[in-house]
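Question (not urgent): is this output format expected?
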Amino acid sequence: MEEHRRLAMAAAFVILLTVWSSPAMAMAAAAATEKLKIAVPLKHGFRAFVNVTDQGVTGYCIDLFEAAVNKLPYRLIYEFVVFDRSYDELVQSVSSGINDAAVGDITIIAD
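Got this back:
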């Protein structure tokens, strides 16, 4: 199980760096005057992946996201936005432009 988790983390890290380190994203980030809104799910159960408290947002997914952002060749300005609705609505909020991205224990399937 640990090997599977490590491989999943590496794959997510590569995807994030591939998309956000492209020249187009670098130019967009440099031109951005507003913080990117990164949605995180508000969970009331298992909090190892994402844990929202009054002091901020922590967890495995947050650590992975911040490690990837720190590897980018430019400064990415962002803020975490707590999202207290379904995962389908979370993904839709990114697709519709309400949020710029989402970080959490999110699975996207063909359905």
